[in-house]
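Teaching note: in complex prediction, the entire set of molecules is handled at once rather than each chain in isolation. The prompt given to students was simply: 'Predict the structure of this complex.' The entities are:
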Amino acid sequence: MSRLRRSLTARRGAWAAAAAVALLLPFWFASYQVFQLATAMAFVPAIAGLMLLTGVAGQVSLGHGALFAIGAYTAAIIVERTGAPFAAAVLAAIVVTGAVGVLVGLPALRLQGMQLALVTVAFAVSLPPVLLRFDGLTGGVAGISLPPVVAPAWSGLEGDQWAYLCALAAAFVSLAVVAAVLRGRLGLALRAVQADELAAQAAGIDVARAKTLAFAISAALAGGAGALYVFVVGFASPESFPLLLGIAFLVGMVVGGTGSVAGPLLGALFIQFAPAVAGDVRDDLGGIVYGVAVVLVVLAVPGGATSLVPLARRLARRPAGTPFVPHQEEETA
Amino acid sequence: MDRFAQQLVDGISAGAIYAALALSLVLIFRTTSLVNFAQGELALLSTFVAWQLHAWGLPLATCIAGTVAVSFVAGAAVERTLIRRRERHDHLAAVIVTLGLYLVIDGLVRVIWSADVKRFPSIFPSGLLELGPARLSWQSLGVLAVLAAVVGTLALLLYRTRVGLAMRAAADRPDACALVGISPQRMFMLGWGLAAALGALAGCLVAPQLFLSPDMMAGALIYAFAAAVLGGLDSPLGAIVGGLTIGVVENLAGSYVDWIGPDLKVLVGFATILLILLVRPQGLFGMRWTVRA
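The expected output is the structure of the full assembly:
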């Protein structure tokens, strides 16, 4: 078998194995861990969207926590007010947040790197007070509480297991969407824009359209993730969506790596479990763990966790005596 | 009318705080073209160190002076170890490293000193100055006076000394200045050191009003960014003017615009940042950049 064929088969095998393990997890673990895993799965689409916008298109957004919040509240309000099924609420959240993404993306076309980061920070900081103010709609400080998830009778599952499996399915769908986008013309256009915007424009790429699309898709994913989150957790309040959440998504994206769609999966697991583990050692250690991880990754392993596999393979393959060059590019998954 | 005058004065008082923080942001941007998201936390850490020294019995002025000196060294060290590697136009990596720094320092401060609110003594006399119908505290006046002195000194440094010229050269064209014997790396270290020292001073100046705690900077940070953007990210004078303007506008908007009220004042910061960056990105006093392909 050619090396390419071997590596493709290996990748597909790895994904299949991961999917199998993921499906079985809820039956091995206790209820609370399943809940935590479900929450982590809810983060995956947000980080995947961020990867598309920031990792590939180079548009730094620290506001994805706010977009996540918009999706969460949209879904929560719809379910609370109309009793519609959650699937419909998730769809609505995706559409609404995608529209917000377009609104945000339009002025963003005129902003350079640091400026965009600043604006998104301001956006993220401004949202919780606005949520608190419109308390007729959002429930103010108390937020919105939804009844806990009940698994359908035919499944024979517990509520938390059902929630986890739904979140898992949504996470994998979002990763497939991002992978498809990256493989297609938009992905190519975005990579070109990040590499050299002027050259991309000269090559005939409609930069404004590509960036706006990236914002829309990325926001829609974040909104869907937010709706998923509120489905799993059953509660949304302004305090659940601080600036730190947007920062955490960015941390997850960097630590997981932007070279492969496995990155958001690893990143989501990291941001959910690392602070919990660190918190067991000592309170408040969670933030330090995030910060140290992110700085270490940027300095030592810029490709994130998912770049470690091709890195290890390269290390194993090179004959003795060749110099080690750490920052070569590898194909995406 | 009396109330308006007092609101104005309160706005100036808050603005002094934003101006102090904005100044160190501007200094880093001026010397290295980076927006340092960790600026507030670095200043906070320095302030905690000063507080700790004072709690151990050292006189206040010594603590502040010592902390400023140590912060200078620490800022230069941070630049050398963490920021140095980042290429000048690699915004994402730079943003992420400063965010990582923010997270680490925030966590560190919480672990070492806990979340309790602490009293930080003021080096200015307590009491109020009567300005017609309004009252301004000596604390606020003192902060403004120190800031004015700092801006003056900075202007002298940047525009009247060889070192200042070298720093400006390094910020403007790091590749070219290496050709004339200026080490851009050294100038960046210097810039970060100065900004950290300034941040430490700013933190110690505002802590008496804001009360020292890990969350001290959180409320002011967005306004500090807005102030820096309004004044122009590369203008120290702009930081002061921007800070005072934001303070006054935010306060007046909170009091007189019913729809905003005290809780949505942060929208003033957001709107400022957005509008200025879209309409006049160089702010009031900053320099216009034209990018050549």
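Point out the following to students. Chain B is about 75% helix and 5% strand. The longest strand of chain B covers residues 128-131.
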